[in-house]
Amino acid sequence: HPDLATFYSNIGSVHDSMDNYPKALLFYEKALEIQQQSHSPSHPGLTISFNNIGNVYYNMGSYPEALSYYEKDLEISKHSLPLNHPDLATSYSNIASVHYSMGNHPKALLFYAKALEIQQQSLLDNHPDLATTYNNIGSVHKYMDNYPEALLFLEKALEIRQRSRPPNHPCLLASCGNIGVVHDSMGNYPKARTFYEHAIRIGEQSLPLNHPDLQMYRNKLEDVINK
């Protein structure tokens, strides 16, 4: 019965939010099993369960399994949603994140680019999701040592976040810190210092003083000053 699927899915969500991933998986799979009995294999109603299960596997670090479920979600979403629908961008983004976590950086870039293309058509130009995708693309370029490209995307992310978030929001810390790391890697130490200092100032207003991210940027600042 569809209501039973919803019931199982809701229990899965509670376990998911408490990081009880094996239990979340158990209930999400029960929900999917019921949905598969009452829907055709390509029914859009299956995508939420595929996505939920993919998310749990991703959070558990089981990347091949996560990829399998995200791909099932994408396959249905491509045929059931308009080509510029934001949920389709999320599907591409999820697959990109798995490839990124597996170290498949060129594939991650490919899927993030598809997500970005949709978001640029369907979202306002100061939407936080757009900033997240710019940041993700910048981060992939950073890991591939493509520093000029990394800066381009990370700066776009920062610009949107400065327009759409409070000045002490933790995502601004991440943006400033990432840009600092790229300048540091390029040997632009004065610029790296400026961005690390920005990140620390934001973190001191928005995070516990012993937060690992704050400590990391304090250490990086100290290293840059010594350089």
TrEMBL record:
Keywords: Repeat, TPR repeat. TPR repeats lie at residues 5-38, 47-80, 89-122, 131-164. The keyword Protease does not apply. InterPro entries: TPR-like_helical_dom_sf (IPR011990), TPR_rpt (IPR019734). It comes from the Eukaryota. It comes from Adineta steineri. This is Kinesin light chain. Gene3D superfamilies: Tetratricopeptide repeat domain.
